[in-house]
Structures are given as C-alpha cells and as structure tokens.
Specification:
By secondary structure, the protein is α/β, with parallel strands linked by helices. It folds into two domains: 212 residues, Isopropylmalate Dehydrogenase (3-Layer(aba) Sandwich); 137 residues, 3-Layer(aba) Sandwich (Isopropylmalate Dehydrogenase). Helix content is 42%, strand content 20%. It contains eleven helices and twelve strands. The protein is globular. The structure holds 1,4-dihydronicotinamide adenine dinucleotide and magnesium ion. The site of 1,4-dihydronicotinamide adenine dinucleotide has 21 residues, from helix 4.
C-alpha cells in the first residue's frame, strides 16, 4: 500500500477547471486500486487571494507545502494582477526554494491527435534548467523614464547548476534506453554564460560514454524541431531556451491543451510540482471548454515520480484511447466537448483498462 499526501493549488482562470478533472482521476484510482491511496489538501493561493491579502500566498506557505509528497498545480494569471507578480510571488519561490531545478516536458505525439506530423513517431523530452539561467531577478534599471535609461538583466549560469541538470538529462537517457542527448546552446554569440554551459554539459557527458552528446545552436535547433522532430530523444536546455523550445515542442504534438510538465527536485529533499505547460487562458476561462488532458497528464507524471509508473501508464493509455476514438473532443481538438465531458471520458477509459488488467492478473 502506498499512501501519498498531495497539496493542490488550482490557481486562476482555467486552472481550477482542469485541476478538478485531474483530481477526479486520482480519486478514481483511490477507489479502483487497493494498493494506492492519495489524500488532497487544496490551497486557494491565486490572484483573488492576492487582491484580498496583498500577496499570492501566506508567509509560511513554503513551510506548509514542504510536508507534502508532491504539489499539483493548475495555472495562474489574471488581468487584474501584473503577470510578473503572479509568477514571481508564487511559481518562482516554489521552484527555486524547493530546488526544483529540472523542468521535464515530454513532447510525445499521441495517437489520434490532429497534427501535421501524424504518422511520425515523435517522442522526446525536454529537460529544462529551472532554477537559474536567464530567469533571474538579478539586474536593474538606471535613469528610469529618461532617454539614457539602461536595463541590465543578468543571466546566472553556474557550473554546479548546469552539471546537475545535465546529469539528470544523461541519467534519464540511460534509464530510458536513449542514445543521444541534445544540448541547446548559443555559445557563438553569448560567449560567457553559454560557453560555461557547453563546458559543464560536456564534462557530465564524459561520465556517460554510451550516450552521444550533440550540441546545436538554439536557432538551428528550433528549425530542426520543425524539420525532423522524430530525431530527438532528450534535449537539455537553459531556462529560457527550454521554455521556448517546449512551447514549440507542444505545438508539434497538438498544442498547449495536451502538454504536461514536471518541476522536479530529483534528490527528493523537497516536494516536486506538476503542472500543465499552459497558463490560465483568460480567453476561455469560465466557459468550461478547456482541455484537461495537459493537467491530467501532469498528474500522471506525478504518479510516475512517486513510483507508480504503472498507474501513470494507465492514465496515458486512457487519454490516447479517448483521442483515438474522437467521440469526445474539446474545441482545441476540433470538437465541442466540455472540460467535464473529456474528464469523464478519460475516467471511463481508465476504469475499463484497470478492469482488463485485473482480469489478466
Ligand atoms: P495560455 O497558455 O494561458 O493561453 C494561450 C492560448 O492557448 C490561449 O488561446 C488559450 O485559450 C489556449 N489554451 C491554453 N490552455 C488550454 C487548454 N487547456 N485547453 C484549450 N486551450 C488552451 O497563455 P497566455 O495567454 O500567454 O497567458 C495567459 C495567462 O497565463 C497570463 O497571465 C500568463 O502570465 C499566465 N501563464 C501562467 C503560466 C503558469 O501558471 N505556469 C504559464 C504560462 C502563462
Ligand atoms: Mg512557457
């Protein structure tokens, strides 16, 4: 019997709508699998909370979250609160304080997904550095509002940080039977930070002689993603490059409604956080038509991280079944199903898959 406690932060916009469906999936597993038990505590830390309290979460929020096995996060962002506040007062503190230095983003073309690459096998992961790099709050502005104004935004690349994320990428490749790690760089133009990145990645690569390291400049790599996405296995990138590549990657395989991510603290010193790649989607929030697959898949990544890959595989198989059947499709997939219709269809598929499994064992 495995028993887990999960903190749930639904957030803003479509966040609560899709998180609801993910939690219902996990509750179904509670019911159907006697060896699995997961408890949930929901925290209403979002833009509403900010408008009431002047902060995105309470001062002791990280102490509270620290005690959970994992965090399931929806999305944040609300027109009434500046985006840099929501991001820097909620997501960044969790990622940084909990040392979630790996952002893992699978780019996998599921069967039944409308895509230009239908028929191709696209199945790789982006390992994005998640704790330093270009997304640092080091810098400032001088002479504000004048023609002489200067803005300096520092990129923080450390040998230790780069080696840690690179090691995760190579380990991942090794454990998943992959042969090549691709590193995104730009050391021809960004000569200090990206040269250190290259050196550190190469150094780690030497520890894994069976795995090839290929390095591409980010601009060329963006083109290769579009031209031959089936060639990639594991892509390791700095915070900014990884962020851009993962939106590109998600566009190749059906869009944001289908793209999950995991913010991992690989050592397990702190809880890891699981969230879709997409944001709060204010344009469709409240309409009940967001695709919950990215969120449900993120919950599957959470199960995999917690050691229940068997259940994660069942969820992914159920998602793929629903996509292939094309009976229930949210508007982003070309249909008119609601978020709840999609959630229900996936739960029904899970139920059938688990019954079959039980029958076989
Ligand atoms: P977004 O990801 O929220 O939306 C981009 C487009 O994709 C929109 O047209 C939206 O309707 C669509 N979309 C997103 N998720 C979908 C889903 N599950 N099903 C169907 N369609 C979906 O990005 P945008 O518009 O740039 O940002 C909106 C807000 O979200 C901003 O406040 C931004 O700061 C925030 N944001 C938050 C993130 C997070 O919480 N980690 C990540 C990205 C953005
Ligand atoms: Mg992004």
């Amino acid at each position: 019997m495995t028993n887990y406690q999960v903190a749930v932060i639904p957030g803003d916009g479509i966040g609560p709508e899709v998180v609801n469906e993910a939690v219902k999936v996990l509750e179904l597993l509670n019911k159907l699998d006697s060896t699995f038990q997961m408890g949930f505590t929901t925290y209403d830390w979002n833009s509403e909370y900010f408008l009431r309290n002047g902060k995105m979460m309470p001062d002791d929020a990280l102490d509270t979250l620290k005690n959970y096995d994992a965090i399931l996060f929806g999305a944040i962002g609300d027109r009434r609160v500046p985006d840099d506040v929501t991001v820097w007062d909620l997501i960044m503190p969790i990622r940084k304080k909990f040392n979630q230095y790996v952002n893992l983003r699978p780019v996998k073309l599921l069967k039944g997904v409308p895509s230009r690459y239908q028929g191709e096998t696209i199945d790789f992961v982006i390992v994005r550095e998640n704790a330093e790099g270009e997304y640092s709050n080091s810098g400032g502005r001088l002479y504000p509002g004048t023609e002489q104004e200067i803005a300096i935004q520092n990129t923080v690349i450390t040998r230790t940080g780069t080696k840690k994320v690179a090691r995760f990428a190579f380990e991942y490749a090794k454990q998943h039977g992959k042969t090549t790690v691709t590193s995104a760089t730009k050391s021809n133009a960004i000569i200090h930070s990206m040269k250190l990145w290259d050196e550190a990645v190469k150094e780690v690569g030497k520890e894994f002689p069976a795995i090839n390291l290929q390095s591409y400049y980010i601009d060329a790599l963006a083109a290769y993603f579009v031209l031959r996405p089936e060639d990639f296995e594991v892509v390791v990138a700095s915070n900014l490059f990884g962020d851009i590549l993962s939106d590109l990657g998600s566009a190749l395989v059906g869009g944001l409604g289908l793209s999950p991510s995991a913010n991992l603290n690989p050592e397990g010193d702190f809880p890891s956080m699981f969230e879709p790649v997409h944001g709060s989607a204010p344009d469709i929030a409240g309409k009940g038509i967001a695709n919950p697959i990215a969120q449900i898949w993120s919950a599957a990544l959470m199960l995999e991280h917690l050691g229940r890959k068997d259940l994660a595989d069942v969820i992914l198989a159920a998602i793929e079944q629903v996509l292939v059947q094309k009976q229930v499709q949210t508007p982003d997939l070309g249909g008119s199903a609601t978020t709840m219709d999609m959630g229900l269809a996936i739960r029904e598929a899970i139920q059938l898959l688990l019954l079959v499994k039980e029958g076989q064992s």
